[in-house]
Records
---
Amino acid sequence: MKNEGKKNDCEKAAIRRFLAQTKHDHPRLKLVILLDGLYADNPTITLIREYGWHYIIVAKDGNHVSLIEAMNALYDEGQVHHHKIVDEKNNTTHKFRYANNVPLNLQNETERVNVLDYIEIDKKGIQHVWCWVTDLELNDDTVESVMRGGRCRWRIENETFNTLKNQGYQLEHNYGHGEKHLATNFAYLTFLAFLVDQIQELSCPKFQQALNKPKKPTRKRLWRKITSFFLTLMIDSWDSLFKAIAHGAKAQKIAFDTS
């Protein structure tokens, strides 16, 4: 628990540095800041508002008991609004419960936030639940946009950071530490490699064919294939390499290295 507290303190200090640097580098840029539940607190929200930005921040029941109690009290008073959208095409139902100007916690000078509870019922009837606090006004016309904005954070987390950690890029937390610059340079090189791969995945048909060869493609499999082919075959171009992975080495007439 002590180490977890230190970790949280480090992450909160890091977000303050990041926001300050972003404001310095882009003073006129209008932003909506997406954050996880660790940052749903008065200091972070106050700082974002002082910079002139908006926010959508995850709120978890266990960490925001007083917020949930305030929402329940408003519900009893009839001040909580409900909205439902049925997506017949995807057989999905979206349910929204929201209220504006809710106290974030029990402190006297606490921030007032708008709270959005959201339930998605998928085609199998399974419910998925989220909750966010935001300063964006909530009404029947805006709740879907705010929900999709909030869910973008999960997509960034899953498709970027988890990919860098678990899909063969080997990005480690200790890349952010070190007395000199080696670890930082490792991180920069990893991000550059990921950027090149993203560009290829978006725009290179040959890369797409090589990546999507199996039914459930993973980058790890592609990296293993590339390594294997480099070790055993004469590769004269990226085009030949990707074709060999997608269609088989024999079809591309790539000769074995007999030297």
---
Amino acid sequence: MSVRELVVLGTASQVPTRHRNHNGYLLRWDGEGILFDPGEGTQRQMLRAGVAAHDLNRICVTHFHGDHSLGLAGVIQRINLDGVPHEITAHYPRSGRRFFDRLRYATAYRETVGITEAPVDADGTLAVTPAYTLQAHRLSHPVESYGYRLIEPDGRRMLPDRLAAHGIKGPDVGRLQREGSLGGVRLEDVSEVRRGQRFAFVMDTRLCEGVHALADGCDLLVIESTFLDEDEELAVEHGHLTAGQAARAARDAGVRHLVLTHFSQRYSDPEEFERQARVAGYEGELTVAHDLQRVPVPKRR
């Protein structure tokens, strides 16, 4: 059975706390797993969350600040230790290649698994698979940073009343789907477009065009909200978002489920992030993330 869910491995910004690990997020998308921003401690959080190295197919790093990348060394060595049988692709800003190389070869180990490096240096498409297209958009942070967006191809939803009107049933329904027409009846005559699901991952950034491009029409948006609104000046200075800014971006983009994360250690009440997001006008499903949480991708419309 296909599973589409976000597994939250860590939600702290800059430094871990007693209750929040450094960043780490696994997107399960049917049979694939995409690991985003593995900060320090990710390997242990994977164990606690029931995520194996074998579950990984891609690693996507937004930028090379430590809370988003220091876990790469352990994760990559675990991939090799466990003998993952398939190739894994790593995406990261090309300007940070030297950091990736240092983390990949931080200590001695036996390298047995192929990791394909596919650095990002511009907005655009990174990969096209039957299940999704993976895109990147530049963000606004003191170091080069990219957000990631996954788009499922549109499909078609069969309409039972139209099928019945044309007398099509049983195995003929599948034949019509495969061949596109049957006895003069076209597939589009008895179906409608089923919009593909969309997911986006937006970490350290000020408000910018990339935020809006990534969030547009998403079913599930994972976005940083490092600061509360009263500290907006700090957010702008350090290249981050507030809860209200993130929520307004999600509202304007028509996001169905908003996941706020990457919280500064200065705040002790996570409910305040939700309150400010609601005050900002976001009315969809809202999650203030906590470690080891599982968030399902919303069902198709």
---
Amino acid sequence: MTPTLVRHHSRTETSTRMAPAPGDRARDWAEIQERMLAPLYEAVYARLEVGSGTRLLSLGCGSGLSLLIAAARGARVTGVDTDPERLALARTRLLPGPDGDAESPAGQPRLLEGDPSAARPSDGTPYDLITAFTPIGCSADDGEGLVAALRSAVPLAARGSTVVLTGWGPPERCATAPVLRVAERLCGRDRDPRIDSWRPSGRDDLEELAFRAGLNPDGSGRVACPFGYADTDSAVRGLLSTRLFDAAVRATDRAQVEKEIAQALRPHRRRDGTIWMPNVFRYLVCTT
């Protein structure tokens, strides 16, 4: 699976500046943005030979694409997230029944809201793989949140199990980095680094996070994840769905943020109107 240029819910420029209706941002994430990380999911699963013998716990599973890919390989999957709207979409994708019942039969995907400690295996068999596919660097304190989540999740896994952490690659290898710096500038983080906004990942950020969580690094890799969009409107909506611009919206307003993102996207606009930004993401394989 590779990123696909898609156009969903065509809107006028004026309508994109309206406050989104409940659930719109989660749908934009599921329909536009989430697929950009599919090459990362697939590369990790191929390296770890994820299959019918894998019991996977996904931290921050979002709307469930990474779980869907793992389940298609035969893995038994459980996902945890704190966003009820993204989780509702994951249940629609993964769980049987018209309402995506969270109490799925044995062997079916499990999707739970809240702290990872809620994901204790129902049959008592521990997990052997934990993934954290939300790249760190999304906010100033996301590393702290992930360390806490890992400390809750690792006791649910067997000794010697695998944990995968992910982060943005070097800024010079990520064409999206200058666009994301719009958030940094608008929310004032360039003047006060304590303000919550996107920041580029450091070279050893994943290793430092692993050590803080009590994990042992055991290999790493880099994966090309280009961001491709059908048009500027789709790109703006997709990027806003990442939550990386939330602090900028609070500091200014949505219309201003959308305008500045659109301007930053101009160098990446091709003759047919599509947007294309090559990026590299890094993953770290650890053991418990």
---
Amino acid sequence: MNTRWKSLPSGVVPDVADAEPLSGGAVNDVWRLTLTDGRAYVLKGSVDAPPDLFPLEAAGLRALQERAGIRTPQVFEVSAHHVLMEALHPRPDTDEFWEAAGRTFATLHTVRGDRFGWDTDGWLGLLPQENGWADDGHEFFAEHRIRRYLREPKVRRALEPADLAGLERICERLPQLVPTSPCVLNHGDLWRANIVADPAGEPVFLDPAVCWMWAESDLSMTYCCDPPPDRFFHAYEEISPLPDGWRDRMPLLHLREHLSVLAHFGTYGDTVAKVRDVVRTFS
């Protein structure tokens, strides 16, 4: 059994009877811990994490719950190396569940902010998510979701000068490519794996990278990365209708994720090809 969870500073570790590894992505380790008294928790951690990564994750979960009433895991402990949360359930892949998830996500996007950004920078993976305040969403997306990654060494090694030039043209053209819309509360990293269920089968959102930004930019992660069925998006639009052509803009707004992958891992799979497709289409 992998026993790295024993190195984390959780107060429940001495009482663990069983530890089951869960999928935690490429950054952290995640375990479902069952205690000797039968209680279960999820322990997520890394001894190599930046010291504010887990505290900021816990703050993001709290922001979603307090500002929008969104169901997120209850947090019991948090430190520089771990977060201990309630154990939840796998999502049921039913039409009813995905409709409920779509309506919940839309409710999140009805919460409006005054400016684009957040009161602190956060993390997307192991790289800082820049959240500096801006009054203009196009400026914010250009500077903090595209150009921010063009400074990363692995991105510059993975992309050719023509690719970088094309991304700069996209930054300049954003006001013509994306309609002006208000800043709303963003989960920031909502793909299928970050949606689970509570004991009643209702959606619960995990692993946020919160900020105030466009609804479409938040939706692009859900739409482009292992998307849920169309019922999710139809239910979303019942609560929060989207501007015409929103599906066509999803690959453009998903650039942030492609560039983040390159910044973390360098040339990875078909990520460079996907960036070039976006450049060809939108620049």
